[in-house]
Amino acid sequence: MYVDVQYSDIVISKIYSKVLQDYRDHLKDMVNPNIVYVTDLVSCSQKRIFRQKYPELIFRFDPIALLGILVHRGLEELLKEYGFEIEVEILREIEINGKKYVLKGRVDSLSEKSVVEIKTARSDLGLPHEHHIGQLQIYLNLLNKDKGVLIYITPDRIAEFSIEKEEININELLKETLENSKHPRWGWECLHPDTLIFTPNGYKPVKLVKEDDKVIGMDKVTKKYRVAIVTKIIKRPMKPSEQCFLIEPAGLNHIIITENHPIFVRFSKWGNVRNVGSYKQRGYDIQITSRTRCRIFTEPQWLTVKEVYEIVEEDKHRNISKEYRVQPWMYIPYPTEIKYKASDLGLTDELLWLLGLTIADGTLKGDFSVRLTIGAHEKEVKEKVEDIASHHSISCSSRLRTLPPPHGKVFFIELGVKWRKLANKLIIWERDKETGRYTPRKHFTNEILYLSPNDQKLIIEGMVTGDGHIYADESLDYATTSPKLAYQLVTMLLRQKILPSLKSSYKQYGWGKHPIFHVRWSMHKKRRPQAWFVNNGVWVRIKKIIPYPYKGEVYNFEVEDIENYLTPAGIVHNCRYCAFAKICPYKVIEQ
């Protein structure tokens, strides 16, 4: 029998109204500068400032928040039957620098001898959390109790921890919060030292990033690619209770990151094309992938790595096909503007191709020419270069040479001073004995990144002709030891709505040991899409997110204005607590 199932909000609307009313009841206190909450004393001090400035952004109505509310109410009612007081309000007036402030808190449950705090978590890893212990210690000091209990409700177990009272200076904690001198209060979010960071000139390991360096991130409002300056470096050892995770998007390099570092993500599930109207009515974004199927996307949000991992793991335990499980995605912005025409830079279609070939196979020769090194079997390439040189009045000469193994016979093509001058305006290269793809510092000037995608396509064709490889499945591979050039190639491919894979490896060959970057892509992908291109960037499916054993030093840094930065896997943030990490336009800055 067929039953027509309709979307309903009879119960949800009532729950929403109740949660919204509770928020409105506390709104006046939340924006009062003379009121400080106990949770403020164990949180990032910047969080309180944002709460007062943007109180409407604190409101949350999502399954995680609602589950916490319901668990609190249910357990509190149970404890009430055993003589516990519940929802006990605490007020303490404290004077700081001659001004009076009210410290407010609310104990979940209270007995004659102990204080009970109830917490919900998606995992029992790392329990009990430091900030929860700190909150309980404040209550023990305010109420003069000797013992407290932290009880955690997780999907796997109910965990209870007994906490003995320790004397703490509440006045000092309050002063630090009011002076905004503790952001972050806990040093949780950081990256593995070898994690690569995107800069305007290519990749740089986070351990080598310095103050005043420029990095690439995402504009808070437009979600566009943006260059910003690093204002502070953070370096610290991993804590024994901390855990790192490895995140690997489809095709791209992985990153290793601590569990509480926020990343910019969204989730998807498969849906039926027939129901697209219903999905859109409920506020989902839709990516149609075939005649019958589509992807249903949640809204983008900031979540900690651990939260993303737990969402994925929780879905694995459900009795559903692997194909229909939830999929996390990370965001990579890239420049979409077209600032220059090829003619503005003195280039034609033929010269665009020659420019790509030059950066792949070219090196400076003396003070007046550029030498291209072409395999002896590539006579068609040699003839094409000679024709282009003739069309544009560029002096050109070629000769056949025999190089030591493994190179064998090659053509040396010398292009004269006219091409040398033009190429020097568009290519940054070093004068050394290294040539071709083994020049680790060779890259384009930034103007090339802002040509039209069609112009960049011709440059890429020239690069592939020089140092590329075409596979039987028509996929292409470009190899270079220049991280800057690899990054620029990835950017140009993204501008053409192509998601490349990017891998690096070390290889001893010819001119010494350099990391070789392989950029691989296909013009005709038959497999299901791994990317979703939007106006200002691309969402890339997270292929793998797993715990990673690491106990060394970790790094982070603060970025002006945008407060985030781009890694090969996507956008990560340097902010604090999840309540603000999930709010895209306003983040808590780590200092």
Verbal overview:
By secondary structure, the chain is of the alpha+beta class. It folds into three domains: 10-178, Lambda Exonuclease, Chain A, CATH 3.90.320; 196-335 and 535-581, Beta Complex (Endonuclease - Pi-scei, Chain A, domain 1), CATH 2.170.16; 342-522, Homing endonucleases (Endonuclease I-creI), CATH 3.10.28.10. The strands form eight sheets. Strands 11, 12, 13, 14, 15, 16, 17, 28 and 29 form a nine-stranded antiparallel beta sheet that branches. It is elongated and about 95 Å long. The chain starts with 9 loop residues before the first helix and ends in a 10-residue tail after the last helix.
Biggest sheet details: 9 strands, antiparallel
- Can you tell me the CATH topology of the largest domain? Endonuclease - Pi-scei, Chain A, domain 1
Q: Terminal Cα separation, in Å?
A: 61 Å
Q: Using the alpha-carbon principal axes, give the shape.
A: elongated
Number of helices: 13
Structural class: alpha+beta
Work out the count of structural domains: 3
Radius of gyration: 29 Å
Low-confidence regions: 432-438, 575-591
